[in-house]
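Q: I have 118 residues here and want to know how they pack in 3D. Can you give me a structure?
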Amino acid sequence: MIDLVLDVLSWISILGGIFFMMVGTVGVLRMPDVYTRLHAAGMTDTMGAGLLLLGMCFQAGLTLVLVRLIVVYAFLLFTSPIGTHALASAALSGGVEPYTVPPCRTEKSNSLNGEQNS
């Protein structure tokens, strides 16, 4: 019975990780500038890989593999934000401007009920 519960938790975690990886991939492809793409990639690393590793931890049981998976996730938690910050700082230092909404789009989206401002 406990094996069935562990298998179900493992599959839920792995499928959740795959979902976050796919959504993050779409985010990296669809976002308008480097900063929002870095955010999507960071969320993919943290949530997607974290849930995948959690699912693998359920399958590993109490073995040395579990310890290795936890060490991999701890390494990922430390290196992903540092790498994202370094890339964002390099982009800012290189003169890459953040995306801003064009003025014609902000005027149309300011009203709450969908009417255009006159």
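Q: Anything worth noting?
A: Helices lie at 2-30, 34-60, 64-93, 103-109. Residues 25 and 41 are 7 Å apart (CA to CA).
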